[in-house]
Write a structure and sequence with these properties.
Elements (H helix, E strand, L loop, with lengths): L1 E7 L6 H16 L3 E9 L2 E8 L2 H9 L1 H4 L1
Antiparallel strand pairs: 1-3, 2-3
Length: 69
């Protein structure tokens, strides 16, 4: 199992950001090695945790053009 965490401070984002974020999330969830996702917030931080079966799925996500953007 491989875990990728994205820790950030939420802010005001435009519609383009949300569309890109939704596209990346949909791509990740469609990968064969995707196993799940969970999020939590603590104070002013948010953590999105994505679980993958193997590095092949993580590599594929990292090479997704939207993710690189």
């Amino acid at each position: 199992m491989i875990i990728c965490q994205f820790i950030f401070k939420p802010g005001q984002y435009d519609a383009d950001f949300h569309a890109l974020d939704d596209a990346i999330d949909a791509f990740a969830r469609a990968l064969p090695g995707f196993r799940g996702v969970e999020t939590w917030e603590a104070g002013d931080l948010r953590n999105a945790i994505y679980y993958f079966e193997d590095m092949a799925a993580v590599r594929e996500l990292s090479q997704y053009a939207g993710h690189q953007e």
